[in-house]
Amino acid sequence: MSVLFVTGTSTEVGKTVVTAALAAAALAAGRSVAVCKPAQTGVAPGEPGDLAEVERLTGVTRTVEIARYPDPLAPDTAARRCGQPLLTLSETAAAIDSLADVDLTLVEGAGGLLVRLGEFTLLELAQKLDAPVLVVAAAGLGTLNHSELTTRALSSAGVRCAGLVIGSWPDEPGLADECNRSDLPRLTGVELVGAVPAGAGGWDRARFSAAAPGWFTPGWSALGH
Predict the structure, then answer these.
(1) Which residues make beta-bridge pairs with 137?
(2) 19: helix, coil or strand?
(3) Which domains does the chain carry?
(4) Residue 134 in 3-state DSSP?
(5) DSSP collapsed to 3 states, 36-102
(6) Strand partners, 151
């Protein structure tokens, strides 16, 4: 099994749709896939969360959600507010290890790299599992600073960055978008390995799954055999 973590430079940058696109591309390459969302917030019991969206877009059914909290807050804060215990590093790592029979396990974080999923951050979880982290970035203004901060944090912690993906590439990109697409790899030292079209999360499964492999750099090792 290989494990790939998916984080964002902030919230609402397209992590879930990128996670679904990664799953669809890996399936198209003949790999078996599972997806783990350690902590889901802002969703009531029984309501569809991020994993339901991944399943809708890709057909992946091997999914694990460890905890969910009703308030749309950072997971540790949301857990405290509803009186639930904080997730621990060991139980979360064990849940991911339970998916070892698939070729690729995708682990989607919450918010950014240093948001606390419980008693730990996604960065600490990646360190424990010795797994790379893919960074989902915005296209527009502000993304250079956010992306460089995130990739520097990964480098300082000794965690490999698997690449950058623009989570929502506009239909009509502006000057900042076009410049950022060139500047992101130059300033971070990390390869830009993909861009997902804006609005792709609203597509049906057939269209999404057929298009997703083309959103990533051909031969990118995280999706290969």
Answers:
(1) 166
(2) helix
(3) 2-217 (3.40.50.300)
(4) strand
(5) EEEEEECCCCCCCCHHHHHHHHHCCCCEEEEEEECCCCCHHHHHHHCCCCCCCHHHHHHHHHCCCCC
(6) none
15, 37, 68, 116: the catalytic one is 37
- Whether 37 sits among the annotated catalytic residues: the reply is yes
Tokens in use for 49?
């969360």
Other residues' Cβ atoms within 10 Å of the Cβ of residue 41: 24
Count of CB atoms situated within 10 Å of the CB of 145: 11
Q: What's the CA gap between 72 and 78, in Å, rounded?
A: 7
Contact (Cβ atoms closer than 8 angstroms) between residue 119 and residue 87? yes
Q: What is the pLDDT of residues 107-123, one digit of tens each?
A: 999 999 999 999 999 99
Interior angle at CA 132, CA 192 and CA 55, nearest 5? 80
Give the Cα separation of 68 and 78 in Å (integer): 9
Taking each helix axis from N to C end, the angle separating 143-156 and 175-188, rounded to the nearest 10 degrees, works out to: 20
What distance in Å separates the CA atoms of residue 10 and residue 28, rounded to the nearest whole number?
29
Q: How far apart are CA 44 and CA 63, in angstroms?
A: 18
| Per-residue model confidence as pLDDT tens digits over 143-186 | 999 999 999 999 999 999 999 999 999 999 999 999 999 999 99
Single-letter amino acid code for the residue at 166: I
